[in-house]
Write a structure and sequence with these properties.
77% helix; 133 residues; single chain; transmembrane helix; transmembrane; mainly alpha; membrane; elongated
Length: 133
């Protein structure tokens, strides 16, 4: 039993799994809160759409599946990480803009946390293999 649990919890890519959980969390927050973004007024409806949160959830699931799979497709990893970086950069920008416009400290803090997660993605990218060998 102990060996089965050890094999279940063992992973080759723990950073990818942590990133996947972060993406899932961000996505679920965006899906659950339909009035999170309010500025700029013309874009609030698009930013608050559940599809935006759904994209984060899907990226989190894809990252988790890649991290748990035995296939080490470098091109899939590279594409997932680049898309994740783009999503996090846009989300961090929106959070920081909203925080500065509204003066709400929790949005500024969330923007900085997303910048930290973005830096984590860049570290994963720099440490990842670049080619299938």
């Amino acid at each position: 039993m102990k060996q089965k649990l050890k094999n279940l919890l063992r992973t080759e890519h723990p950073q990818h799994e942590n990133l996947a959980f972060a993406m899932l969390g961000i996505g679920l927050i965006l899906i659950c809160n339909d009035y999170y973004f309010f500025w700029p007024p013309f874009a609030a409806k698009v930013l608050n759409d559940d599809l935006v949160g759904g994209v984060f959830v899907v990226m989190g699931i894809l990252l988790f599946v890649w991290a748990r799979s035995t296939s080490t497709q470098v091109y899939a990893n590279r594409r997932l990480l680049v898309l994740t970086a783009g999503l996090l950069a846009s989300e961090a920008t929106a959070e920081l803009c909203h925080g500065f416009v509204s003066g709400q400290p929790h949005m500024i803090m969330a923007g900085f946390v997303e910048l930290v997660v973005l830096r984590f993605v860049f570290i994963i990218i720099s440490n990842s293999r670049k080619h299938n060998n």
